[in-house]
Amino acid sequence: MTGNEMILIASLASIMLSVTFFVIGFRVGISGSVRKDVYAVVQEALNKRLDSMEKMFSDRLQSLESKLDQHMKANGS
Fold first, then answer.
1. Alpha carbons 24 and 38: distance in angstroms, whole number
2. What domain range is 64 assigned to?
3. Number of domains within the chain
4. Which residues, including other chains, have CB under 8 Å from residue 37's CB and lie 6 or more apart?
5. Buried b or exposed e, range 22-37, using 16+ CB within 10 angstroms
6. Which of 9, 30, 34, 77 could form a disulfide with 72 if both were Cys (CB 3.0 to 4.6 A apart)?
7. Half-sphere exposure (CA, 13 Å, Cβ side) for 71?
């Protein structure tokens, strides 16, 4: 398993864990106004996490594309 696969699995596990706790919080029976606040906080946290994951994978993809271009130029392709 490569490092990228491990990062992806860890990130997905983190999101799944966050969603699980979010659902558990709803099941416990939080009052309506607090529920909306909790939902907004969790949604914001998940959005930030997804944005950071998107940036990380985008940066990694650009790095790999750059390495591929260098490799192709070095081999005369």
1. 12
2. 3-74
3. 1
4. none
5. beeeeeeeeeeeeeee
6. 77
7. 6
Residue partners of 26: CB distance under 8 A and separation at least 6? 35
φ, ψ (nearest 5 deg) of residue 31: -65, 160
Structure letter (DSSP) for residue 1? -
* pLDDT, block means (10 residues), the chain with 77 residues: 77 81 67 70 86 88 91 84
pTM of the model: 0.47
3-state SS string over 19-73? HHHHHHHHHHCCCHHHHHHHHHHHHHHHHHHHHHHHHHHHHHHHHHHHHHHHHHH
Helix (H, G, I), strand (E, B) or coil at 11: helix
> Distance between CA 7 and CA 4 in Å, rounded?
5
